[in-house]
Structures are given as structure tokens and as C-alpha cells.
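Project standup — Tuesday

K.O.: blocked on the structure for the chain from last sprint. Re-posting the sequence here as requested.
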Amino acid sequence: MTRPRLAELRLSAFAGHRRARLPLGEFTLLSGPSGVGKTTALTAYGALARLAAGGTLREAFPDPVSLVPDGARPDAQRRRGFRIGCTSVGPAGPVRLDLAVQVEPDLRIVGERLSARGVVLFGTALVDPGRRAVQAAWHTAGQAPVTRAPLPDDRLGTALLPLRVAGRTDGQRHVLAAAEQTLVALRSVFACDPRPAAMRRSVPVGEGRLLGDCGNFADVLRRTRGECAHRHARFVATVRAGCTGPVEDVRAVRGPGGTVRAVVDRGDGTVTDFPRLGDGELRYMALALVLLTGAGVLDVEAPVGEVPDALCALTVLADGFDRGLDVRQRRELARLARQTVAGGHLRCVAAVSDAGWAVGDRAVTVVHLEP
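H.V.: unblocked you, prediction finished:
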């Protein structure tokens, strides 16, 4: 069964990006020096995922003014904004989603278009600036060829279509198939940028769902070590391959007040507390744990329970994938990522400063961003 996935991210006018088209594979590296917009691209991907999950514009873009293109001038109505989009592929074929967002004077969606094979299946437009709504139209192919209705201007219209379209005609079913493919391709996202300082602390015992900064790493380690011996063994083997010194185990140790802390068991009765480890080692272990777990452990942007397991593919957005890592650690993480995405249930889009080590690897899609 073909799983819907994102094949392209478009940053038509977004922060420092102009007319950027970023192809996406199963394992994608966004490469370039600091300041070229790698983090911005991951921000755009994550924001589309939040909107696809039903989030509002304010939830998806908490600092929208910073995303208005540099040097963009307001029009006669004092309006400024940005434009982004994506293309999904799957059972419905290539489906494009394009979004125009007004940031000033009010944050709102002013235009949205869902299209397939050059045909616009669904579109919205801001008709009356005085109303907090956009006019939407979608194909019906019944007695009335097009259905029109107002929709909120602070939410993605595509995410609302499954609630508004009955699917009684071929045209409606086509619209629904395109919308659902786009939503499934976008929804399951985990944005990750491990913070070593947070990983060194003792944390309260909780539900064991890993946060984006990996600050609750010890609690998640406690859970995963007890629930899946096979995955934990793979994790320990990966740590052993990329870290200095002997590694017998990596485990969580109970502390006072219902807390846990993470330690490395050296196998001779010696343990090394995480505060004694370097930033690179901690980031390496956090990213390895992310790649070896799944949506049931990671704090994903949307509840993937709404999507059948056979169609679900989690996308990890990893900022600073190579930050602080040595050559051995980078190589081991890349190997692990390639193995994991080969199973089809996980995809990875990572930002790196230099992807020269991955050029020529057919399992890796390298996108070079220029200043």
C-alpha cells in the first residue's frame, strides 16, 4: 500500500527564501552554512503540519512578523505576508497545496489552493476584509458543479474539507482523496533539537513521551528500556559504536522525590552520570533514540491514532543534525537513519552544515541551500 508522503516543500516568499523548491526524499539533508534558512525551512514544514492537524495560524506561526520576507513592502491597504506550499504524492497522485498568509494588519489566510494535475479542486479567497472568513469553493461534479461556503480565515481549509464534503459524487470523492492524502502526508511530525543542558538534569517520572528538546530523556529511557528489549539493545549498540569508552548499558536510575536520571553503565561496576558527558555524546544519544522509537514514544505534532497504521509515516524534523558530532557519530547516525527509513514508517528531514559526506549516497536526498 502506498503511504502518502511529502515530495516537495515550497517557500515562495517566506523569511529569507524566494521561489525556493526543496525536494524531499525518505532521508533528506538540508545543507548549507549558517544563515541560509535551514531552520526556517524546518519551521515551515512544522507549521504546515500543525495546520493540517487543525491548529490555528497563531499556533502554527507564533512569531509571524519574523517570517515576512526581508524588504517586503506593504501594499495600499498596509498588508504584508508570506507564501508557502507543498506537494504530496500517494494514491491520489501528485497533489499541490499553496497557502498565502497575511500577517499585517491582521494574521489571516487570504488564499489557499489545493490542486491536482493542473486542476484546482479547492480554493479560498478573502472577499470581505471586514469579515473573519474566506470564501471557499470546491468541485462537486453533481447537479451543482461547484459548492461554495464561508470558512474560518485562521485555519487550513483543506483540514476542514473531510467535515464539509459528503463524498456523494465523483467530484466530491476526488476532492476528498486529494485533501486526505495531503493531511496524512503532513500530520505526523516530530520536531527535534536536543538540548544537552536539559538532558543532564534529573526529571520527574512521567508518561515517557519524548519532548522536542529531549529534556525528559531519562524518563523516556526508563520507559523504552522496560517496554522493548530489542529496540533498547539496538540503541545501546548504537551508543557503543559512537561514544568513547566501554558501554554495557544506558539506563535510568531512580532518585529522590520520584525523579530519574540517566547514566551510562560501563560494565565493570562503574557508571557515568550524564552531567559528565559532552554535548556531542548527548546529542548523538538523543537523536539515536528518536530514530529508534516511534509515534507512541515521541511527542508528535498530531495524534496519529486518527490515521490507519498501514498509512502512517512519522516525519522527524531534526535541526542541527550534525551539531557537535564527530565523524564517527555522524556516520553512525546516518547509517541508522538509512536503516530506519527503509522500513517505510519513518522519514527524516535534517539540517546540517555540510553534507559532503552524503553526496553520492542514493539513499539520501541532499538539498544545498545558498546564501
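K.O.: great, moving the ticket to review. The longest helix spans residues 170-187. The radius of gyration is 22 Å.
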